[in-house]
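Reminder: ligand-aware prediction takes two inputs, not one.
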Amino acid sequence: MTSAFRDNLLAGKTAFVAGGTSGINLGIAKRFAELGARVAVAGRDPDKAQRAAAEISHDAIGLSGDVRDYAAIRGVMEAVVDKFGPMDIVVSGAAGNFLAPVLGMSANAFRTVVDIDLNGTFNVFRGCHDLLNRPGASLIAITAGQAINASALQAHACAAKAGINQLIRVLALEWGPEVRVNGISPGPIAGTEGMARLAPDAATRQSHFDRIAMKRWGEIEEVAESAVFLCSPAAGYITGSILDCDGGSQIGDASRGDLSKGMA
Ligand code: COA
Ligand code: NAP
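Here is what comes back for the chain with coenzyme A:
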């Protein structure tokens, strides 16, 4: 796709993407690097992190750390700053998900998703504050429509992502004007682990297409453009916002009724 942003927009900036070793977050990391940023990504699997870094750019770094472990993810971010200097952009995107009803979910299963998504985002943002280039740094959490729309088989993700939305707003209040804190809520994005898990069969995928205003799944690159926008000067007065990059998924159900009926 054609980008709306000039090639050197992020030159001289340091960006860290937690959970940036695959999928949407890796796409964001790649776009940051294309626009000139020094980029670091982290996930649990060290080999996957190395492979991701090699895909991003020749000087990107891929580190291993679990966002559930505050000391571990703090150590990762200290290593990023040692290598690249204070961070201008931090994305918290690590997540875990699976379909399960509450009665098919142990207490540990619920806690695991809340721990990765919500506590992980707290750990990344709490841990990065004194490592940021301030004023001017931009933080982005990757949330989801489950934060707003209750969804069966998604109690853990609904609770975790709703918590992330409020954490974004509280941090925007506490850290403005030095640091802007925003979120991106992607809709169903093609070719991702998330959609492989949440829409594993053709019927579920079709029902997603039918309900969405844009009548298609999104592309990783489209979410990446939203991330670039939020950390660019164009979003200089935007903080505490959640940007829905979701083809209209959250505004309602576009599958209702035959729109040709009643047309002149
Ligand atoms: N249904 C019900 N419970 C499940 C489950 C499922 N499909 N998958 C895992 N669990 C439970 C486990 O049984 C375990 O509970 P228990 O100890 O009571 O048995 C608990 O969840 C933790 O599982 P575990 O495999 O130990 O966790 P982990 O920390 O190794 O992995 C997950 C975390 C489960 C979220 C794993 O799917 C993961 O790593 N996901 C990352 C990728 C991803 O989800 N991407 C999509 C993002 S939208
Ligand atoms: P993905 O490819 O599975 O990416 C998840 C990333 O997080 C990987 O880099 C993974 O690497 C890392 N990770 C997982 N658990 C971690 C942990 N405990 N500590 C550190 N890193 C961890 O997922 P995706 O589908 O692209 O989703 C990315 C984000 O977008 C998530 O926040 C998701 O909720 C959100 N989202 C996705 C969609 C969609 O359509 N896919 C829709 C709405 C929102 P390791 O496995 O090596 O740790």
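The helical segments are 23-34, 46-56, 70-84, 107-128, 155-175, 193-198, 202-211, 220-230. The chain has one domain: 14-243. We will return to this case in the review session.
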